[in-house]
Write a structure and sequence with these properties.
- This protein has 437 residues and is α+β, with helices and mostly antiparallel strands.
- Helix content is 34%, strand content 16%.
- The protein contains 14 helices and 15 strands.
- The strands form 5 sheets. The chain has a 7-stranded antiparallel sheet with strand order 1-2-3-6-11-12-14. A two-stranded antiparallel sheet has the order 4-5. A two-stranded antiparallel sheet has the order 7-8.
- Helix 1 runs parallel beside helix 6 and helix 4 runs antiparallel to helix 7.
- The longest helix is centred in the N-terminal third of the chain and has 30 residues.
């Protein structure tokens, strides 16, 4: 130890001094160590006393306090015979040594009370931990202000363990949307509706029931006029599968063979007159639902005529049509949703009911009504108003929001303009049945 003190007396380089205290550093001690050393409450009194007594005896005493009596005996002797410049250097050594001793003592106590700060992440991300402050910043701060700013480090109450910042490449999301992106990064499972975009109608196809969710059309007096040249001929149209739907979810025409059900149109071919292509698109199986023959060829066929004739009461008519699967009360008083399935793979659901929501526009005013018809035959004539149903009730049953841009508080019933007391024929004439299929 004496030899080391003598080495300090000969070479007063500050870097070597820190090498002596802490071992060979891989880089200069961080600036924070200097600030803690020079501003510690335990260090300040020692610094004041050491700086006020610049003689060899006090220097030797300071060295003794820093390194112990045995280590300071030869240092004191050397200080007595040294030149004034050398004694001044010795004083500096004593000051720094005393400060180092106080700092080491402080960190010994502090380490026993606090958890060590976490090491920087191994990834070497420079953004994870803040860089060391620029020494020039501390050069402009008065010593008292610097001391006050660091007082929390010397509080008698142990500080809370530091919280390591999350690495920049963390996969933990900050919002539900980000979390959903992580969870669904391999795809959204569904359910999916296939969009039906055609010349005369649009819609959405339900893969689960192999029926359309809904189909929508716009009717006007002009749209129902047949062109003089090359008028469409429905006899040239044939039922066919929709190739835009994935093969596993398609309905084919032969799925209805020997099923006991008609291939009933949702958008009737009679509503389309503009071209052969437009008529052909009404025969796509995505526009078809299983209907009982007596219903398809009777009440439903007659009701389609009623809707079509609304163009003579309104400037334009918008119609949304689709299937429903409604509950029915059984003998035990409970309600059940039951429906038959047909097809080669028994995947085509047979709806219990069908709806039509009609929106008529006349002189800029809206008229809105809903109709629900059971998928069953009847042996008598029934009036249209028998099937009137609140639009909100159809929405609850179907899960579809009809005409959301229409202000329903101002919309009146279709029956305010059209004659809803008209009778629907329970049986179509032979000519109409031939046109239907």
């Amino acid at each position: 130890m004496t030899a080391l003190v003598e080495r300090l007396l000969v070479d007063l380089d500050e870097r070597d001094f820190f090498v002596f205290l802490f071992g060979q550093p891989t880089k200069p001690p961080p600036l924070r160590t200097h600030m803690l050393t020079m501003t510690s409450p335990r260090t300040l009194p020692i610094l004041r006393r050491a700086s006020s007594n610049n003689n060899s005896n006090n220097s030797a005493a300071a060295t003794k306090r820093a390194f112990g009596a045995r280590s300071s005996s030869r240092a004191a002797a050397a200080a007595t015979t040294a030149s004034p410049r050398f004694r001044s250097g010795l004083s500096l050594v004593a000051v720094v040594a005393a400060a180092a001793a106080a700092t080491v003592s402080f960190f010994t106590v502090s380490t026993s009370q606090e958890d060590p700060a976490p090491a920087p992440p191994a990834s070497g991300n420079a953004d994870a931990f803040p860089p060391s402050p620029d020494p020039a910043l501390f050069a402009q701060v008065p010593a008292q202000a610097a001391t006050m700013s660091l007082l929390p480090f010397f509080s008698s109450t142990p500080a809370s363990p530091p919280v390591a910042p999350r690495p920049a490449d963390s996969s933990v999301a900050d919002s539900p949307v980000d979390r959903a992106r992580q969870i669904l990064q391999h795809g959204f499972p569904g359910p999916k509706s296939d969009k039906l975009y055609n010349l005369a109608y649009a819609g959405a196809y339900d893969r689960r029931t192999r029926n359309a969710h809904w189909v929508a059309e716009r009717l006007t007096r002009d749209s129902l006029k047949r062109p003089d040249e090359n008028p469409p001929d429905r006899q040239k149209s044939h039922f066919r599968e929709n190739m835009d739907v994935p093969e596993d979810f398609r309905t084919k025409s032969f799925d209805y063979v020997a099923s006991g059900y008609d291939r009933g149109h949702l958008v009737p071919a009679a509503d389309v007159a503009e071209s052969q292509q437009a008529v052909d698109e009404t025969f796509l199986m995505t526009n078809i639902s299983p209907q009982l023959p007596q219903f398809n060829r009777g009440i439903w066929f007659s009701f389609e005529k009623f809707i079509r004739n609304l163009v003579f009461s309104f400037d334009e008519v918008f119609v949304v049509t689709g299937p429903l699967y409604l509950p029915k009360q059984e003998e035990n008083g409970k309600y059940y949703v039951k429906y038959e399935v047909i097809g080669r793979d028994k995947t085509i659901a047979v709806p219990t009911h069908f709806f039509k929501i009609a929106l008529g526009i006349k002189d800029g005013k809206s008229y809105l009504s809903g109709f629900v018809l059971p998928n069953e035959g009847t042996d008598r004539h029934v009036s249209v108003e028998t099937f009137l149903t609140p639009v909100a009730a159809v929405e609850r049953a179907s899960g579809i929001d009809f005409f959301p841009n229409v202000d329903r508080r101002k919309a009146e019933s279709i029956c305010k303009v059209a004659n809803c007391s008209a009778s629907l024929a329970f049986r179509a004439i032979v000519k109409d049945v031939l046109e239907l299929e």
